Amino acid sequence: MSSEQSSPIHLKRAGLKATSPRMRILEVFRTSARRHLSAEDVYRILLTQDEDAGLSTVYRVLNQLVQADILLRHTFESDHAVFELNEGGHHDHLICVACGRVEEFRDENIEQRQRQVAADNAFVLREHMLVLYGVCPECRAGAADETHVSAALPTQA
Ligand SMILES: [Zn+2]
Ligand SMILES: [Zn+2]
User: Fold this and answer.
1) At how many degrees (to 10) do helices 21-31 and 39-48 cross?
2) What topology does CATH give the domain 90-157?
3) Which residues of the chain have pLDDT under 70?
4) d(CA 75, CA 39)
5) What's the pTM value of the predicted model, to 2 decimals?
6) Strand, coil or helix: what is 155?
7) 21-30 tens-digit pLDDT
């Protein structure tokens, strides 16, 4: 909220500010260690780069990039969309229901079965989406040690 950090870094990045939000947001996806990012994730990453794009701008640009087929949008949970670069290759997803972590997988047997199911029903397959919901290894480890973890966590507002 407060922009007290009028540091030289801020000025140095003034050139970046002149470039379009679209380029900056694409750069976030290209450089992020995580492939799947929500609008809030993108917004927060931009903030750490001294780029306050505004959440509504982030939403608008993400939608433009989806319409341009540059990004893919997945709605893994009813109210929470994540975005990833559209790199052409198909993959499916595993979602951790505890922490929201997203993993990718591709299984040729599943792919082939799905094509066969479509063919058996005289469908021409256009696309499909397979999402497996579960609990990731870190969250499983945390649950096994729950009392310790919750005691160590700071109180959340
Ligand atoms: Zn997890
Ligand atoms: Zn993915």
Assistant:
1) 100
2) Dna Ligase; domain 1 (3.30.1490)
3) 1-19, 145-157
4) 12
5) 0.67
6) coil
7) 888 899 999 9
Those residues with Cβ within 8 angstroms of residue 44's Cβ, 6 or more apart along the chain or in another chain:
none
pLDDT at position 92? 94
Ligand 2 center–CA 129 separation, angstroms: 10
Measured in angstroms, how far is the CA atom of residue 11 from the centroid of ligand 1?
39
How many Cα atoms sit within 13 Å of 96 on the Cβ side? 15
Domains in the chain: boundaries: 1-88, 90-157
Cα of 29 to ligand 2 centre, how many Å? 12
| Tokens 């256009």, located at residue | 126
How far apart CA 126 and CA 64 sit, in angstroms, is 22
Cα of 142 from ligand 2 centre, angstroms: 25
